[in-house]
Amino acid sequence: MILAGFCAFLQIYAPQPLLPLFTRIFAASEQRVSLTLSLASLGVAIGAPLVGVLSDRLGRRRIIVWSAFLLGLVSLAAATSQSLNQLLFWRFLQGLVTPGVFSTTITYITEEWKTGAGAAVSAYVSGTVMGGFSSRMLAGLIAARLDWPWVFALLGLASIAGAFALRAWLPPETVHSKHEPSEPWLAAIAGHLRNPKLVAAYAVGFCVLFSMTGTFTYITFHLAMPPFSLSTAALGSIFIVYLVGAAVTPVMGRLIDLYGNRRILMASVTAGVIGIALTLVPNLWVIALGLAICSSGVFASQTSASGYVGRTAERNRALAVGLYSSFYYIGGSMGAALPGYFWKWGGWAACAACIALVQMVSIGIALIFWQEPGPELREPV
Questions:
Q1: What's the angle, vertex CA 81, arms to CA 93 and CA 50, rounded to 5?
Q2: Handedness of CA 1, 203, 137, 11 (dihedral sign)
């Protein structure tokens, strides 16, 4: 599960520390280069429901392995880009194949773990934390020492190696090898969208990735400017704060099994808002602390929201999780784009206010619409 999470997030946000570099190389605005993130997230949003249908027919394990392999191939293709438009095209394709790892693994966990699913999801999310940290950290170092195309080339090779490892180590499914849909695809989507608890979980997922993407996209521009003036390599090292999230997330999974998704979500989002507030202090160490708190809160929120979807969907679960991924990554796409207008208006302070507001909205949604699972589902392993 940790390896699957690592592969899922090894590619999708790797360009974040490179964005100030891209503004100079391609002579483009901050909003324009942020499309390398928002188009990838849009691709995930489009591909997630389709992957859910494919995994129902072909099996979860097969889709996870092949998607990880395709992620590596598309990354190698992105390394050949000669213009920003070409890079944007390949980034969109990367997004299309990412849900095969992201959403399918959550479904796989929900079906294979009958108790303690929160702990299993947290192991997967820990893997996504490590993948997200490694990709950003390596991207900054590689771009500083070699050149930016090498970022995509080397990460692509790592994804291909990860696909072969998943093929060797990921246990075969024991519940079903293939899942025939119980109703037509569009009817199943409509059914999920009529479930207020699922729709609320989708809205929370939107807010979660909006906050994460908005924070770590525009904080790079903030830190690249005076008085900080960080280099590309230094911007990549900022993502070491992800390691705090890697340590916190497994604990959150256990707490979810004990206390429920809603309580942990509210605590996690509150921590995220506090972290965002700390990034407004003009001190690099305080900003790093704020980012560590913010990212840990977001990772715990993601564990809570994705686990809630798996527990709430009673049928067509892969499609339900696929829809969650769509809303989640639409939020990521908007998080890379919408705060750009606040950036132009009021810099990082305006961006931070926008992100904090979105985080608080997610608390309100969970309070109104989420219901705690029964005690038998919260029993820890």
A1: 0
A2: positive
Torsion of the alpha carbons at 134, 291, 205 and 35, rounded to the nearest 10: -70
Rounded Cα distance between 210 and 145, Å, is 31
Instruction: Provide the pLDDT for residue 283.
Output: 93
Mean pLDDT for the stretch of residues 170-174: 81
SS3 53: helix
Structure tokens at 275: 């972290």
Residues 6+ apart with CB under 8 A from 193: 199, 323
End-to-end CA distance of the chain: 16
299/264 Cα distance (integer angstroms):
11
Q: Angle of helix 117-145 relative to helix 284-312, nearest 10 degrees? A: 140
Q: Which amino acid is at 102?
A: F
Q: How many Å apart are CA 341 and CA 242, to the nearest integer?
A: 26
Distances from the Cα of 321 to the Cα of 31, 81, 134, 265, 379, angstroms: 30, 33, 26, 18, 22
DSSP 26: T
CATH fold, domain 2-168+184-372, is Growth Hormone; Chain: A; (1.20.1250)
Sign of the Cα pseudo-torsion (331, 99, 261, 371, in order): positive
Proportion of the chain above pLDDT 90, given as a percent = 29
Of 315, 310, 328, the residue nearest 106 (C-alpha): 310
SS3 assignment, position 310: helix
Residue type for 128, please?
Answer: T
**Angle 196-224/339-369 helices, nearest 10 degrees?**
150
3-state secondary structure of 281: coil
Integer Cα distance of 255 and 253 in angstroms: 5
Please tell me what DSSP assigns to residue 279: T
Helix runs in the chain, H state only: 2-8, 19-25, 30-33, 35-58, 60-78, 84-97, 99-112, 117-145, 148-169, 185-193, 196-224, 232-237, 242-259, 261-278, 284-312, 317-337, 339-369
Handedness of CA 53, 57, 63, 64 (dihedral sign): positive
Q: What pLDDT digit, counting tens, does each position of 341-358 carry? A: 899 899 999 999 999 999
**What does the alpha-carbon distance between residue 381 and residue 372 come to, in Å, rounded to a whole number?**
18
